[in-house]
Amino acid sequence: MTHVFHRNPRAEQPVVARGDGPYIYDKAGKQYLDASGGAAVSCLGHSNKFVADAMKEQIDKISFAHSGFFTNQPMEDLADFLVARAPGNLDHVYFVSGGSEAVEAALKLARQYFLEKGENSRTRFISRRQSYHGNTIGALAAGGNQWRREPYAPLLMPVPLISPCYEYREKRNDETSGEFGQRVAGELETALIDAGPENVCAFICEPVVGATMGAVPAVEGYFKRIREICDQYGILFIADEVMCGMGRTGSLFAVEQEGVAPDILVTAKGLGAGYQAIGAMLVSNEILRTIVDGSGFFQHGHTYMGHPVSCAAALAVQNYIEDNDLLSNVRRRGEQLHDALTARLGNNPFVGDIRGRGLFRGIELVADRMTREPLDPSLKIHAKIKSAAMEAGLMCYPMGGTIDGRRGDHILLAPPFIIDETHIAEIVEKLGSTVENVLAKAIQ
Ligand code: PLP
């Protein structure tokens, strides 16, 4: 009997033993192709020696020195690396240990920024339906993921939710993609006016939505309109790139492809690729200056922020990606993966949509392709696909999203940036037969 308080104490999980590139092996020697990086984390695959050596080298020098007493070289170098490549005038980086911590920091920083400017009434945030920004209380409140929020609803600050830019589900037949994007972006203005613009700090959303929708990019022009509205009403735009950032969609930052820059950008998962727990908040010069010229101190912090070994690992990960031009591979293999998924599953009567960017791909399952009716949630198709895929030696990330309060099913794929065409063939073959078998059994 285990003494570990597992998140799902009833689930029986294999014990992981080792990793090698895109593969993970359990204690019994079974091989799994990691086609989801866990939850879009392991962008370099497993046991990368270059990263391991960089971590070891750092541990041999010093493994921890509190950031309240010292800065450290890997943290300085990693900040330089990110800022040199960041969009707009994001020119300072605040390091934390993961995505939720990065989002919490962004929410608090947005509030403190307006406080320092004497705009004390600005305390509220606006977000989108069917979004996820993390599991801590502030980040959970900022997300529109109903089933995660419900048990804790009394603890959460109220956050108005606007429609996501989710073309497959939200676009009307009588509008073009462009019109749809302008309409849903315009909801931000309506929500701002309802809340009173003088009461709002920031709008937060994911440039490409991950866990709650399965790799959904916005339509062209959507983010330009969002940026305009934020500027017009003087609120901050926080881009949550915890999942979609750090090369996952084919550019280092996902928002680059939208032609706009946020005021705050948070990232995590792919930053350290799972070699260490690390997250980051990139902040515009204007925000940093306001804090420096005001109280001079960001009223927030964590023990492990800027951890030297985490920063050394993340720096090695990012250097490895750049030195080996892995983002070209992300773009090329991403297209191949999309084409192969479409060839294998595109005519399946339960596959409604195949979408995404780079090596961030989603498949939405439906009961009826014409009406786009979601599958009956009680069938728990996403959970069945997850365990059947593991049985077949494939890690993918199926989730039940929230569609009008009901859960719909999608599968997220986020394989490592090092994959080649043999891995794509293996992913598509294993996933294809898993999806077909599970659906054939569940729906007679
Ligand atoms: N934001 C987004 C977009 C995420 O996908 C996640 C995690 O999946 C988080 C925030 C929270 O990150 P973490 O699980 O590292 O706390």
TrEMBL record:
Cellular component GO terms held in the UniProt record = cytosol
Against Pfam families, the record matches this protein to: Aminotran_3
Keyword vocabulary terms for this entry? Aminotransferase, Pyridoxal phosphate, Transferase
Protein name, per record: Aspartate aminotransferase family protein
Can you tell me which family this protein belongs to? Belongs to the class-III pyridoxal-phosphate-dependent aminotransferase family.
Among InterPro entries, the record links this protein to: Aminotrans_3 (IPR005814), Aminotrans_3_PPA_site (IPR049704), PyrdxlP-dep_Trfase (IPR015424), PyrdxlP-dep_Trfase_major (IPR015421), PyrdxlP-dep_Trfase_small (IPR015422)
Keyword Lyase applies: no
